[in-house]
Design goal:
alpha+beta; 40% strand; Nuclear Transport Factor 2, Chain: A; 5 strands; 25% helix; 138 residues; globular
Length: 138
């Protein structure tokens, strides 16, 4: 199993901006669960499509780059950067056209070569500051 789960997670993150909705079953298990309390409840393949839609509707040219990852059994811990242009509504904020780059960390559980669960934390405050919804410090 060495590094296989890491490759699954890194592939998903690197391709999240271009995964066709019809192909989510290649990346997520049918009983996938998102444990991110900042998002609406998302489960299964329908929830995976919903997750992609949330990010893609808010950002054009969505990109995620893995900066570091560690694998332990069926779980992978990842530090990654999400970037794109704020081109649609996100967190109740209309499109600003501004570029966004934010760090995130996550733990992903992989089963049979697909995402089964994830716990992701990202710097939402930084996103809101970058799109002009909140003042930046200083």
């Amino acid at each position: 199993m060495s590094n296989n789960n890491r490759a699954v997670v890194e592939r998903l993150l690197q391709e999240m901006g271009s995964i066709p909705e019809s192909a989510v079953g290649e990346y997520f298990t049918s009983n996938w669960v998102n444990h991110d309390p900042s998002l609406p409840p998302l489960q299964g393949l329908e929830g995976a499509v919903g997750l992609l839609r949330i990010w893609r509707s808010g950002f054009s040219n969505l990109k995620a780059e893995v900066e570091d990852s560690v694998e332990a059994g069926d779980k992978v811990a990842v530090r990654f950067r999400i970037s794109g242009t704020h081109s649609g509504p996100l967190m109740g904020v209309p499109a600003s056209g501004k570029p966004v780059s934010v760090l995130a960390t996550g733990i992903f559980r992989v089963a049979d070569g697909k995402m089964a669960e994830n716990w992701v934390n990202l710097d939402a405050l930084s996103i809101l500051q970058q799109i002009g919804a909140l003042p930046a410090p200083g």
